[in-house]
Amino acid sequence: MIANLVSVSTALQRRFGPFGEARQNRLRRRALAIGVVSVMLASTACAAPVTTTDPAAIDPAAIVIVMSEEPDSLDACDSSKSTRSRILRRNVTESLTWRNPDTGAIEPLLATSWASDDSATWTFDLRSDVSFHNGEAFDAAAVVTWFERLFNPDLACDDAGDFFYPPVVESVEATGDLQVQFVLEDPDPIFPLRLTFMQIGAPSTPTDNKGSAAIGTGPYMISDWAKGQHVRLSRFDGYWGDRPSIASAEFQWRSESPVRVGMVSTGEADLAHGIAAQDAPTDGTAKVFANGETTYFRIDTLVAPLDDVRLRMALNLSIDRQGIIDSAFGGFAEPASELFMPTTLGFNRDLEPWAYDPQRATALVSEAAADGVDVTKEIILYSRPDFYPNAREVAEILEYGWEAIGLSIKIEFVDGSTWGDILLTPHEAGRPPNILQSSHGNATGDASFTLYTKQHCEGSQSAQCDQSSSDLMVQAATLADAGERAAAFAEVLRLQRDVIGNVPLAYMQGILVLSSRLSYTPTIQSDFELIIANMTVSQ
Amino acid sequence: MGRYLAKRVVQSVLTLGGVIVLVFIAVRLTGDPAVMYLPLDAPQELREQFSQSRGFNDPIPEQLARYVGGLAQGDFGESLRRGEPALDVVLRHYPYTLLLAAIAIGLASTLAIVAGTIGGSRPMSLVDRIVSLSSLLSASTPDFWLGLMLVYFVAIVAGLLPTSGTGGWQYWILPVATLMARPFGLLTQVVRGSMIEALSAPYVATARAKGVPEVRVRYVHALRNAVIPIITVVGDLVVGVINGAVVVESIFGIPGVGKLMIDSINQRDFAIVQAVVLVTGACIIGLNLAIDVLYMSANPRFRHQVLAT
Q1: For residue A3, what pLDDT is reported?
Q2: Among all residues of chain B, which has the CA nearest to that of A440?
Q3: pTM, whole model, 2 decimals?
Q4: Is B168 on the interface with A (CB under 8 A)?
Q5: Contact flag A416-B36 (C-beta cutoff 8 Å)
Q6: Yes or no, beta carbons of A255 and B251 under 8 Å apart
Q7: A36 or B217, which is more confident
Q8: A222 or A72, greater pLDDT
Q9: CB of B28 within 8 A of CB of B63?
Q10: How many CB pairs under 8 A join A and B?
Q11: Closest Cα partner for B297 from A31, A430, A133, A156?
Q12: Is the dihedral of CA A260, A262, A264, A269 positive or negative?
């Protein structure tokens, strides 16, 4: 800095010649200011890392994938959030079992086979030819070590919180070098399905924090994680399975959908994920796929006047679902009858989406009013505008429709954290009657992942209580036979049709945009699983 | 002057202390971090266990005392989401925002002084009307719209620059152009007004009467006096630009502190929010002190007032 000041002062003297003391002082002060600014600029310029993808230098064996959000963790035990799972699952990390998105069947991955007599004790045989990216062996001891870390309450791993409360795993033991046994507190017939979500990390992963990047057994390893900028994956030469054709992939993130599309059209990226309907190109580069996501509105059935089922029915009948899909979702969705898609085990095909019948809705509201229900009481419609594209507009359309049938609706826009407070139990005492905008993804193939949390009397996101359907959904979850299980869950849905705790809106479709050189066929799991090994690049 | 600055530093430290306490309490009023940290399907008992083990259920004074104790040892706490020291995360993101803000303000100030001086020197002329109109448009254009338009026309349609990201100088052009638009418009208006006022002052008439060349009258005599309010406005704009950089950072994928702050508030990552506020507060206080020094340097009357007190 001193050198800067001296040089500036000397330059000024050269420019203006010798000058008096007052002028010199004045100029010194100016030089000081210029020096400070120069040093600030220089230091900030030096401090900013300079790394990115130069479009002109794209390697044909490398691809760039741009997503909407940066992962805040790449720990293998935190893979259930989609921003992380798109990078990790089946790329960096693998699970014992895998769900084939085309058939819905649970197939071997790191486990070769599994068995259980009572659905409470499960034994898995493991592959023998697998090693982690750091050279550690994959065996029963590694699996036990990993699950002990996964269930460490101090780490609060997402994967455990998402899929294991219940069921509670009482113990995980190595019953051989390549055999591991899980003992559950209660029988869980879909335990192999549940394990498709449990990514296995290396045993040497720190057990006291979650800051490190995953070391897995997948076909790619994390070679560079420049936080805030990109995650780069490189092909793992020691992979046990087929060698993928793409040598490396870089994940970047841009929050604006049109910018992501623009990156593909300029050659800066090969795949843009999570594109809004209005930004999807019409030149054939956009790939539309059912993504397992259902948009819906949860009704708080426990607070008057929404404790009257006629009003809840009226809420459903007054919605023109197809109209909303066409206007707000660009036609990229289907009207929904439930909170999960028809491909999910337990879906009841006899139940159609609610018909659009505003006259009947108005009559139901009038009938309730005549019986003394206070239909003039203000109902808060909590809308979360960032939830999905055009979520604000959807809430406003519903507000208009519900006002038109005689209800008093007031929209309140909330952020994600406030939304979480409203969603989760225990609900605040003395809360106003309310309806909550929401969206739910169930590409897992089983109704149990939806019903208990959202529609059981004690569900963590439930705002309803119907004892008979609650009891039945618990019973259905213990059934091992797929046919019996599906029938029981379908019956739960039939009972729930009388409860009307939600306003299902639409089965959503995701949109990807691909560059002309990249081939990839999205599946129902592509919202949380982008398997690079399934992609090919034309030279 | 040293005494004055010492007094200002003491005032600033007290202000910063107040900000720390306020932010510490305010972020905790937003709710339980367990709601955002744990999966939505996690049961209530797990949330309770999580909050208990991390001290979020302790009385706020106890949490505050723990935090201040940590600060005294240089410990800003650990990010809940990222599992690393909060200060490290903030300092990793800050250079981007500072660089963006410094270039945007530097360019906006320079161009505004040139444009405002030209316009203010010939009030109501065609040039002045063009300057006024362009500065008004520039000041009133929403930055998110301008940013997306620049991406579309300059990067996608014309292919002249990259759409977004960080890297060489070409990556900074569109974000800087977006971020500097509003300060440029506002500053041009200020410079123009100041120049009109300065050029109508008696000392300018005297200078002209003494035969001082017009260029010198405008750019030395008048501009020097007109620059005083500009320094004040630039100071305010720098703070606004740092705070408002979040939109530009989001559009162009720049990992700056603005986006970090918004994400951390949404995720209830208290340690990061507190660290961002603390570092930003310290920067703004330092900036205000620098502006005071500059102001005294440019305005002898203010300097004499300060030295007399």
Answers
A1: 37
A2: B40
A3: 0.83
A4: yes
A5: yes
A6: yes
A7: B217
A8: A222
A9: yes
A10: 170
A11: A31
A12: negative
Cβ count within 10 A of residue B17: 12
Give A252's contacts in chain B (Cβ within 8 Å): 165, 253
Contact residues on chain A for B35, CB-CB shorter than 8 A: 417, 420-421, 424
Tell me the helices (H) and strands (E) count for chain B, helix number first. 14, 0
> ipTM exceeding 0.85?
no
Q: How far apart are CA B244 and CA B241, in angstroms?
A: 5
Would the CB atoms of B171 and A52 count as touching at under 8 Å? yes
Q: A60: pLDDT confidence band, cut at 50, 70 and 90? A: low
Contact A345, A447 (CB under 8 A): yes
Q: List the beta bridge partners of residue A176.
A: A179
Cα angle value A56/A58/A64 (rounded, 5°): 125
**Chain B contact set for A438 (CB, 8 A):** none
Mutation site, A417, A428, A439, A456, interface B, largest B CB count within 10 A: A417
Contacts for B274 with CB less than 8 Å, ≥ 6 apart: B20, B23, B24, B27, B67, B76, B77, B86
State how far the Cα of B139 lies from the Cα of A14, in Å rounded to an integer. Answer: 39
**Is A229:A102 a contact under the CB 8 Å cutoff?**
no
Q: How far apart are CA B128 and CA B199, in angstroms?
A: 15
Nearest chain B residue to A161, by CA:
B42
Average pLDDT estimate for A260-276: 95
Strand runs (DSSP E) across A209-343, as ranges?
A: 220-226, 230-235, 248-253, 271-272, 286-299, 333-335
Q: Both tokens of residue A259?
A: 């910018």
